[in-house]
């Protein structure tokens, strides 16, 4: 896969990124029956997945505090697979999961505390990308309140993260001014949900990089739809969630077909 550079950030990512929710959490996820295992993969199974990512050219690792134990497991396992410089690590802030339900706090203090916890769990000094973890329960305007946007900028200036942005809910019309100062946005786009296209156009016009979440509609769409998502103007990478090396290989093949 030919890497794509995320605008002015200088970060180069393969067009397929690996989402890691399945490494740390099984509860409360929307996947078709039979596609979400009842238990988390073992360390050996997780290592096999990460080794497959390395061998396939996948370098974007997408995680979050809301993904259960995923950050802690990645902190232990990623160095066993490849050096830190091999990975582009994207984590999030604003949502936590207590095992049964999510909790949201986008206050500046909470965002900083979340990033510091993530860095500790991931065993790194600097995250490559930090996204606010958007949810349908919180509007993008509430999530990207001026104080929170300023806090993101401060974390970047302090060198704790290279690029900042938001995983958008798009549950209300997007105010383009909300994207001021951001480097990256993440939006939903797949064969059955094209609602992210206007936001992608806005981001592209403003020089922001775009990551896609749910490109396979949470497992309801086939691998063959991935190439179409990635061919959308302005899209840099699509994050896929899987715990099986052979599935990741299938998705990479589909993306470059």
Commentary on this structure:
34% of the residues lie in helices and 21% in strands. The chain has 257 residues and is α/β, with parallel strands linked by helices. It is globular.
Summarize the structure.
The protein is α/β, with parallel strands linked by helices and 257 residues long. It has nine helices and twelve strands. The protein has helices at residues 21-24, 43-56, 70-81, 108-122, 140-143, 146-157, 197-205, 226-230, 245-256, and strands at residues 4-5, 12-13, 16-19, 60-62, 88-93, 95-97, 102-104, 127-133, 161-167, 184-188, 209-213, 235-241.
Query: Topology as H/E string?
Result: EEEHHEHEEEHEHHEEHEHEH
Q: Give the overall silhouette.
A: globular
Largest sheet geometry: 8 strands, parallel, barrel
Given as residue ranges, the uncertain stretches (5+ residues, pLDDT < 50) are: none
The secondary structure category is: alpha/beta
Mean pLDDT across the residues is 93
Strand order of the largest sheet: 3-4-5-8-9-10-11-12
Number of strands: 12
Query: How widely separated are the two ends?
Result: 10 Å
List its traits.
eight-stranded parallel barrel; 257 residues; 9 helices; single chain; two-stranded antiparallel ribbon; 21% strand; alpha/beta
């Amino acid at each position: 896969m030919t890497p794509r550079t995320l605008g002015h950030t200088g970060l180069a990512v393969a067009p397929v990124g690996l989402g890691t929710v399945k490494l740390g959490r099984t509860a409360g996820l929307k996947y078709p029956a039979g596609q979400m295992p009842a238990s988390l993969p073992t360390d050996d199974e997780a290592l096999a997945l990460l080794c497959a990512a390395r061998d396939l050219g996948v370098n974007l690792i997408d995680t979050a505090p809301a993904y259960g134990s995923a950050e802690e497991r990645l902190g232990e396992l990623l160095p066993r697979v490849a050096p830190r410089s091999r990975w582009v690590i994207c984590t999030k802030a604003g949502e936590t999961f207590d095992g049964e339900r999510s909790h949201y706090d986008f206050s500046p203090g909470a965002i900083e505390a979340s990033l510091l916890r993530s860095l500790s769990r991931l065993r790194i000094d600097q995250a490559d990308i930090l996204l606010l973890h958007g949810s349908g329960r919180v509007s993008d305007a509430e999530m990207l309140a001026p104080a929170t946007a300023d806090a993101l900028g401060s974390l970047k200036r302090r060198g704790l993260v290279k690029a900042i942005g938001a995983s958008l809910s798009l549950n209300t019309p997007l105010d383009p001014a909300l994207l001021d100062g951001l480097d990256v946005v993440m939006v939903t786009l797949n064969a059955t949900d094209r609602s992210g296209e206007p936001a992608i156009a806005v981001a592209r016009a403003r020089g922001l990089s775009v990551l896609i979440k749910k490109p396979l509609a949470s497992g309801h769409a086939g691998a063959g739809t991935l190439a179409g998502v990635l061919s959308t103007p302005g899209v840099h990478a699509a994050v896929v969630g899987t715990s099986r090396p052979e599935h990741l290989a299938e998705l990479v093949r589909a993306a470059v077909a």
